[in-house]
């Protein structure tokens, strides 16, 4: 084993005092830069490639022309029309023969088949009536849209109030718009500008309907994605 270390003394040198920072040098008044004039003839101005002031006003510019709808082929229309008539006649003859055969076999079977045919015909008429009513409502919506755009463009308070009244009557059967129609009725006399009145009506009345439409679209997208996921065709793809 080694002997234990004996205590020893160490000398610590004192720290040097910090050096004083030199004062910043003041510029000499005589060496200061004298003001000079700039010759305007030597100034060079580089024009920009795109001058924003030369661009036409987007709002004031005329909208682009509407694209013409694609013309349907006359031969194709005749083909599908004739095919539809033939299919309808074939279904009618098949139904008539079926009912006659059932009457020949058993009278009560014939009456049951005739009743089912009448029910199917009534259901078809109801479906067609609903489709025609939906088309009529779409035409009414398009008419209201044109009137609203015209009222906003002319800023006509009278025309705007007429549009708002028609819109309120059009959606009166929908409970989602009750609060918006009530709020709009309270603020109707306080709004002077026709454009602002139409925009407020769009926000208060059509806002809940837009939210409901978004929910319906999301639900439909979920159903489509689910059907696509469980469909065996996805495995083939």
Please explain how this structure is put together.
With 237 residues, this protein is mainly alpha-helical. Helix 1 runs antiparallel to helix 2 (107-154) and helix 3 packs parallel to helix 5 (194-230). The two termini are 84 Å apart. It is built from 6 helices and no strands. Among the domains are: 84-136, no CATH class; 155-228, no CATH class.
Shape: extended
Mean pLDDT: 76
- Strands, count: 0
- Bin the strand percentage: under 5%
Q: Structural class, from secondary structure content? A: mainly alpha
Helical segment tally? Answer: 6
Could you give a short description of this structure?
The chain has 237 residues and is mainly α. The protein contains six helices and no strands.
Produce the secondary structure layout.
Blueprint: H1 74-105, H2 107-154, H3 157-170, H4 178-187, H5 194-230, H6 233-236
Properties at a glance:
single chain; mainly alpha; 237 residues
